[in-house]
Amino acid sequence: MELSPYAQGGWRLLGDPRRFPRRPFAALLRAAFRSLLDDPRAGLDDPDLKDIDPTVLKHCHAAAATCILEAGKQKADISAISTCLEDCKLDKERIEQFCTEYQHRELVTVVSFSIGRSPLHITDVSWRLEYQIKNNQLHKTYQPSYLVTLNVENSDSSSCPDVSFSCTMEQLQDLVGKLKDAAKSLERATQM
Questions:
Q1: pLDDT tens string for the chain (192 positions)?
Q2: What single-letter DSSP state applies at residue 52?
Q3: 84-90, long-range: CB within 8 Å, 24+ apart, which pairs?
Q4: pTM of the shown model
């Protein structure tokens, strides 16, 4: 099981007992599982989290949620999760705490990925070129980027929000290449 560098950075912060003592760590894990499995609108309003910097808190919540989703998606066992978290410099106690929480929720995780969810189907794509002159810190950037909107539909429900993202030319070229590879693989699979 692998996590993105951003998620690994969040787990490194979570592994630091000075930034996240025992109670805030446990509260953040509960919040991450709750927001994914019980109530998507659940926030980070636990009193144990009030002393944590909001930016760090959001980063760490995203890291925990990413790990939960990856583990559920890959149906990862405890040893794979432990290895992944060890790579992020978590101590044995925190790894065991996460794995215990994951085991209690594992059945729910697997079920939540399989009930009532079908893949989105892309029906149309629109894009436009954006040229960024300054970023939010007012540094001059002069970077072109593409704003891409995928119009999607889901067979489970009548309406789905469009998927929008911004990317550089290199990222867009990479995406197009991967989509072409996927289309070729699908074409070969249907010819068998």
A1: 888 899 999 999 999 988 889 999 999 988 888 887 766 666 778 888 888 888 999 999 999 988 888 887 777 888 888 999 998 888 999 999 888 888 776 544 444 444 445 666 788 889 998 877 766 666 676 678 888 888 888 766 656 777 888 888 888 888 888 888 888 887 887 776
A2: S
A3: 84/1, 84/2, 84/3, 85/11, 85/15, 87/8, 88/3, 88/8, 88/11, 88/12, 88/14, 88/15, 89/11, 89/12, 89/15, 90/11, 90/14, 90/15
A4: 0.56
Phi, psi of 145 (to 5 degrees): -145, 160
Instruction: Report the distance separating Cα 59 and Cα 28, nearest Å.
Output: 11
CA distances from 92 to 17, 72, 122 (A): 13, 21, 43
Q: In what order do the strands lie in the sheet with 140-153?
A: 121-134, 140-153, 163-167
Q: Is-contact 51 24, C-beta < 8 A?
A: yes
Helix (H, G, I), strand (E, B) or coil at 44: coil
In sequence order, the β-bridge partners of residue 154 are 157
